[in-house]
Specification:
Chain lengths: 176, 239
C-alpha cells in the first residue's frame, strides 16, 4: 500500500502519491494562499508532513486523499498564521465566499460524474449554510469568529454548520 | 443512529471536520476520537463529503513542473523518522536521563525531559500513543512519572504551532473530593493552569502560557483546585 511504502521510507512512493493527488492538493493550497510561491512552499511542507506521519495513517479512518488534503489544509492555515504577512493572514471574504467555484474542474482532479454530484449537493444547500461552511473551510475561521464577523448568534452558526455538513454527507457518502 | 449523544461529542463532529472548533473543544473531541471508533467513523464520513466538495472547489492551477522532483529528492536517501515511539528504546533512553532542577520544596523533583517529534510509528498502538501521534503540528514533551505517581500514570505536554498548549494525561480517577491540577512553573513560581476530575485518557488545556525553560507539572489537589501546589508532583516535564 502506498502510505505503508512511504512509512517504510520509500521516497518514490511519495512521488507516486504526488502523481495521484498533487494536482488537487496544489489547487486547494492555491486557493487558500496568497500566491503560487506560497502554495508551492506549503505543498512541500505538507508532503514532508505526510512523510513524517505516514505511519500514523489509519485506513479505517478515511481515504488517503482525504487524509492528504486535510494535512494540506492544516499546513495552509498554519502558514497564514505564522508566516503570512499581516494582510495575508486572512483570506478575503470573497475568496471564502463560495464553497465551490463556477467553471469545470480539471478531469485529472475529479471525474465529471462525481463533479456533477458534488455541484448538485452543494447547490441544494441553503445559501446561509453554504456560506458558513465556506468561511470555515476556505477562510479557516472558527464558529466563534464567523459569528462575530457575520453578526450572527453563535448558536445559529453552529446549527448551520451541523445542518450543512449533515446534508453534504447524506448526499455524497453512500454507505452509512 | 443509536449513539448516546451525551457521552459522544456527535454535535461537534461536523465543526471538528471543518476545523471550526475553539481549541479547548477541539482538544476534547480529539482525545475522544482516540478512544471511540464510532465517532471516528462518523467523522470519517463528514470528512469524506467535505474534502470531496473541496476538490471541486479547489483552484484550477498547474503546479510547478519541478515540484514533484523537489518533493521526492528531499526525502530520497532519508528514512521516515519514528521518534515518538513511546514504547521504543529511544524514548526509554531519554526517560532514563535525569535533569536536576532547583524548584520549591513541594516540587523538588528530578525531571526527565524528552523532545519528541510529532507524527510517528507506534508499534504499541494504544490510545494514549495514538492521541499523541494524532497531534498535527507542534511539539510533544513527555512528562515523567514522579515518585508518588500511580502505576501506569503517563502524560505529555503538547505545544501546538497555533492554539493553546495542553497536556494529554492517562491517570486513574482522582480520589473523591480530589482532582488533578496542572501547573506551569516559571523559575520558582508555579501558576495554576487547569483542573480536571477525570480519569482515564483526558486532556487539560493550559490556561497559563508556557515559555522556553518552563516546567509543567501535575499534582493531586482538592477538587476545586489550589492556588499553590499542596502535594508533590505526579508528573513533570520541562520545555
Ligand atoms: Zn464517541
Amino acid at each position: 500500500m502506498l502510505v505503508e511504502r512511504i512509512a517504510g521510507g520509500d521516497a518514490e512512493a511519495l512521488g507516486d502519491l504526488y502523481d495521484r493527488y498533487g494536482r488537487v492538493a496544489f489547487g486547494m493550497l492555491y486557493r487558500m494562499l496568497p500566491g503560487p510561491e506560497a502554495a508551492e512552499e506549503v505543498a512541500q511542507d505538507a508532503f514532508h508532513a505526510v512523510w513524517r506521519r505516514a505511519s500514523s495513517y489509519r485506513p479505517e479512518r478515511g481515504a488517503v486523499r482525504t487524509w492528504l488534503l486535510a494535512i494540506c489544509r492544516n499546513a495552509a492555515i498554519d502558514w497564514r498564521r505564522t508566516r503570512g504577512k499581516r494582510s495575508e493572514r486572512e483570506v478575503s471574504i470573497d475568496t471564502a465566499a463560495d464553497l465551490i467555484a463556477d467553471g469545470r474542474v480539471d478531469e485529472r482532479v475529479v471525474d465529471a460524474l462525481r463533479e456533477e454530484r458534488v455541484r448538485k449537493a452543494v447547490s441544494e444547500l441553503p445559501a446561509e449554510q453554504r456560506d458558513v461552511l465556506s468561511l470555515a473551510f476556505w477562510g479557516g475561521y472558527s464558529q466563534t469568529e464567523i459569528a462575530a464577523r457575520t453578526n450572527t448568534p453563535l448558536g445559529t452558526v453552529k446549527s448551520r454548520v451541523r445542518l450543512g455538513m449533515t446534508k453534504l454527507r447524506e448526499r455524497l457518502v453512500d454507505e452509512r | 443512529m443509536s449513539i448516546d449523544r451525551t457521552r459522544h461529542p456527535l454535535e461537534d463532529l461536523p465543526a471538528y471536520a471543518l476545523g471550526a472548533l475553539e481549541e479547548a473543544e477541539r482538544a476534547f473531541v480529539e482525545a475522544h476520537l482516540e478512544t471511540c471508533d464510532e465517532c471516528a467513523r462518523e467523522l470519517a464520513q463528514f470528512e469524506q463529503a467535505l474534502y470531496e466538495a473541496a476538490a471541486v472547489g479547489a483552484a484550477r492551477a498547474d503546479p510547478p513542473r519541478d515540484l514533484r522532483a523537489r518533493i521526492v529528492l528531499r526525502h530520497r536517501g532519508t528514512r521516515a523518522r519514528r521518534e515518538s515511539d513511546w514504547g521504543g528504546a529511544r524514548a526509554r533512553a531519554w526517560l532514563a536521563r535525569p535533569v536536576p532542577l532547583a524548584l520549591p520544596l513541594a516540587l523538588a523533583v528530578f525531571l526527565v525531559v524528552s523532545f519528541v517529534a510529532v507524527g510517528t510509528a507506534r508499534r504499541e498502538a494504544d490510545a494514549y500513543a495514538r492521541a499523541l501521534a494524532g497531534v498535527a503540528d507542534g511539539r510533544v514533551v513527555a512528562l515523567a512519572a514522579q515518585k508518588d505517581a500511580p502505576p501506569d500514570a503517563r502524560g505529555a505536554l503538547v505545544i501546538p504551532r497555533s492554539g493553546d498548549p495542553y497536556v494529554v494525561l492517562e491517570l486513574s480517577s482522582p480520589p473523591t473530593g480530589k482532582a488533578w491540577e496542572a501547573w506551569v512553573i516559571k523559575g520558582q513560581h508555579p501558576t495554576a493552569a487547569g483542573v480536571s476530575g477525570s480519569g482515564g485518557l483526558f486532556t487539560i488545556v493550559l490556561s497559563a502560557p508556557v515559555g522556553a525553560g518552563d516546567v509543567v507539572a501535575v499534582t493531586l489537589e482538592p477538587a476545586a483546585g489550589s492556588r499553590a501546589p499542596t502535594s508533590d508532583p505526579i508528573l513533570a516535564g520541562g520545555t
